[in-house]
Design brief:
Pfam families: ABC_tran (PF00005). Keywords: ATP-binding, Nucleotide-binding, Transport. It comes from Massilimicrobiota timonensis. The protein has five helices and nine strands; from the N terminus they run E-E-E-H-E-E-H-H-H-E-H-E-E-E. It is α/β, with parallel strands linked by helices. Strands 5-6-7-3-8-9 form a six-stranded mixed β-sheet, with helices on both faces. The chain has a three-stranded antiparallel β-sheet with strand order 2-1-4, with helices on one face.
Length: about 200
């Protein structure tokens, strides 16, 4: 599904990622932790082709469908939640309104609300960002600090959804400071310019 070999990324002579390698077969649930500036968001941006590597290779399965929430989610601020989600899903012709409405209900968001995104709270925006990353049932899902701004109930709902997606065969990578014990990770990595596999109990 995804094969990263000897990946390096520099910004103005400052090395963020160095000799990073990672191989994903599929149906994995991965937690990546590391301090601020360790390269978590940069790695996700490289996988999504938002950034280009300084050197090294990233090989992806042909037509791999990737869903991503990286840093702060961006939306059409003067439009509603329904408009934003419909617009994003229609880009790949994967609009499933019933599934999207189910996700909104789980996160206690009103899909039919006329409220514009610019008036959403931080937590509401984060929920919308999570939904757009998973609503097309993408094969590979990248979530960068996904629980930022969420209350405990919403975090619990998030963990349930992630475990369910993994059971359905999706591969999910979560980069975050906070370890969520209710998520059934298959691999845990520490990122410090390079990836180090942590021992799991």
């Amino acid at each position: 599904m995804l094969d990263i070999k000897d990946l390096n990324k520099d910004f103005h002579k400052h090395t963020v990622l160095q000799h990073l390698s990672l191989h994903l077969e599929g149906n994995e649930l991965i937690y990546i932790h590391g301090i601020n500036g360790s390269g978590k968001s940069t790695l996700f941006k490289l996988i999504c082709d938002i950034l280009k590597p300084t050197s090294g290779t990233i090989e992806k399965k042909k037509d791999l469908q990737i869903g991503a929430l990286i840093e702060n989610p961006g939306f059409l601020e003067n439009e509603t939640l329904a408009y934003n989600l419909r617009f994003l899903a229609s880009l790949n012709n994967h609009y499933d309104q019933q599934y999207i409405e189910e996700l909104c209900q789980q996160f206690h968001l009103d899909f039919h609300s006329r409220m514009k995104l610019k008036n959403f709270s931080v937590g509401m925006r984060q929920k919308a960002g999570i939904i757009q990353a998973i609503m097309e049932k993408q094969e590979l899902i990248l979530l960068d600090e996904p629980t930022r701004g969420l209350d405990q109930e919403s975090i619990h709902i998030f963990c349930q959804i992630i475990n369910q997606l993994h059971q359905q065969g999706h591969t999910i990578m979560i980069a975050a400071h906070d370890y969520l014990p209710d998520i059934h990770y298959t691999h845990i990595y520490h990122l410090e310019g390079q990836l180090y596999l942590d021992e799991m109990d």
